[in-house]
Amino acid sequence: MDGSRESVFLNEEQETLIPLPFKAYEPAIWLKSIVPYNYHVCVEKNYYSIPYEYIKHEIEIRITSKMIEFFYNGNRIACHIRKTGVSDQYQTFPEHMPDKHQKYLEWNTENILAWSSKVGHNTRLVVEGIISSFKVEQQSYRICMTLLKYADKYTTEQLEKACERALNYGENPGFKTVQMILKNGNKQSLSENESMENSSKKNSEYGIVRGSVYYRRKNK
Hints:
This protein has helices spanning 5-13, 99-102, 109-119, 121-132, 138-148, 150-153, 156-169, 175-183, 190-200, 212-218; strands at 29-34, 40-43, 46-49, 58-63, 67-72, 75-81, 90-91, 201-204, 207-210. It is α+β, with helices and mostly antiparallel strands. It has a four-stranded antiparallel β-sheet, with no helix packed on it. It has a three-stranded mixed β-sheet with strand order 2-3-7, with no helix packed on it. It has a two-stranded antiparallel sheet with strand order 8-9. A hairpin with a 2-residue loop joins β8 (201-204) and β9 (207-210). The radius of gyration is 29 Å and the shape is rod-shaped.
């Protein structure tokens, strides 16, 4: 064959070349996951929001050096900047939230804590505990606002007193604890209820068994 590799390239192959891609190829890792009820998918120990309509659906995840992309049936449904360094971080887009969650976006932690302070010091402590119990602060707002609205249903003094009593029974009392105290009109001691619950189950050499108090409660 006449010529050289260079001449063959110049005469026959060069004109068939196409431009290189505008962006360099970027390696990616692909995973699959089911969207949980809180519409935040865990990727590398951090959490990214997905449109809530895809709850319980299987999606594909594309992980690159800088981005996290989510696909359903080949269509991209969400894209986030990849979080690194600290684990248990949440990234939430308001448009991914249900309407009943979005209405609480106008509230933030600062506003809710300020509202609770107007009720009283103990109420603020309870609200702080509720907020800290959620990984996504926005998800606690509904419960906090329901609690604070009890000041209208009862009185500010009754709510503050109920929170004070709840704090006496545990360092971080939940919403239901305060609700129970309010419904009982602060008449029944929560410690009595706790003692009944604790005595309903007791340790033995055979494991956990029901105590006598359990059956007395059943017969009431």
